[in-house]
């Protein structure tokens, strides 16, 4: 993996939507119109070389004028000067903007591109946090890897300790290398390579990590992901713990994948996708790591191609283990055969992280002779709850297109109770109309 930088997109680059433009409303003519030519309330009236908007209760409505006068009179009685009220009102009005719908419905934002955070950053150097900060490209006035997530490497030399602080509802730590301990408001835990633990909002938001063993590079390394950018965007602080601290041991996760392989093998099922979603007892409906974070321990066997899929969440993919010849192809569109158009190739390197942009199609290839492992971190806990994740697999989409279908959402309507209620209401209305 190269140093953190955007990879060039072949085939013309990233397309941008038409820029929005402010939409101004022309003043309504003061000339009176006859009742024959006036428009119904809320409709546009048609005149040569002119278009006006007429609404009930407009600025010339006597009720509005009387209400405004009464408001100023009440303000004066309360000791508020009319000039004060006028100044504040004008200030509020000056902030209002309106846009023409078709050009502004899909506003142009800075695209999220493909970036890598190479393992060399945490393999050498002193104890420190190494942020994967893409705030200049998003842009945001605070550190961020994606709109909702911030990821970093944490290197801890043997015998050292380091504090990590985040104003977040969810923090996840995956142990890339080494072993040690972490002290939190919730208690002290030990960890070793391949473990993963998540922390909820806390009083201080501070954790202290200490390294006991540093593995081959003389220092332990953690992959740290938080939802702090989401809170920064909303202008809020985490005040409530939404789940309990949770630990996923390496052995438990690997055994779960092996059990899955045994079950599928015994049933004669294809072993193309072998992975386990990491859930939390506090998130039984979304089946996600936390209410915001989502993660998967995914394996891809030698010679396997995992066909393309896409989702609306961003993915910050940690290559847990990969020999040369393992890579991801990604792009924004598919051809008629389900192949990615003008794909970008990102090679997996053990201990490195890369960004899969939201909505992009991506497929994984293993041309090596060993099983490769990847641990993506996503904001898909939030998307799943909002019913907007919209994960799609290429074979399903190609089949739909061949059948002349384009889906609006990638899930079925399953709320039978609502469906039954709707049918009952329709029958009731039909009966009332009949009577």
Automatic annotation (TrEMBL):
GO MF annotation list: dioxygenase activity
Gene3D superfamilies cross-referenced by the UniProt entry: Jelly Rolls
InterPro entries from the UniProt entry: GDO-like (IPR047183), RmlC-like_jellyroll (IPR014710), RmlC_Cupin_sf (IPR011051)
Region (Disordered): 1-49
CDD domains: cupin_GDO-like_N
Protein's name according to its UniProt entry: Uncharacterized protein
